[in-house]
Amino acid sequence: MLAKLRLDAVLVQAVIAGALSFAHLHDLAAAAGQDGWKAWAYPISVDLLLVAAWRRLRSLRPAGEPVGAAWFWFAVALAASLGANVATAGLLDLGNVPDWLRILVAGWPALAFLGGTLLVHSPGPVNERQETAAAEPAEVADVERVPDLASRPDPEPEPEPEPEPEAVESPEPVPALSASAPEPSPVPVPAALVEHARKVADEHRTRTGDRIDTDTLRARLGVPPPLADAIAAQLA
Questions:
Q1: Tens digits of residue pLDDT in 85-94
Q2: In terms of CB atoms within 10 Å, which of 33, 49, 121, 150 comes out highest?
């Protein structure tokens, strides 16, 4: 826990220097006629330009890119900060600021905006440009590998084979119908069922005095019509 709370001496020194520089820039801007919130905006603008130029230097130097523009704007921001520190040390009468200093303070926003824009939109390191350039030829090569179908000549149509003559199949001979249809095969009737049907027929004759018909016999025995016809034939 104590290791986390330990303060770095360099960090403390940077905070103190930043606070003093911030206050000196505010005092100089206020003395040059920039009162209210405008006096507080000047030190922020100077510090942002200083940080942006330093970050650009750190990204261009390892890549071997020219760093002249980044050094120029870093020097401009450093001169504005250092100049404010020196001017507020008693060498300048803040109650009677010269006109040239008022002009510099009034023109600083436009100068800082120009420097920040040039730093942001300047060409990046060579590695980034090489990666972008390497990706573009790969896409072009993929496009070139696509065959140009429009430039190919149309293939000559192959001659269609002549249809072979279809073999005429001779009609199959239709079997001649017999003069008389075959008689259906008799339905086998169990002997026990015939005896039972005979008793039912005798009972019907005794009760009604008439011979039992096929429908009544089928209803009494509960058999299908073909079987009832076979039983009635045997009872006749």
A1: 888 877 777 7
A2: 49
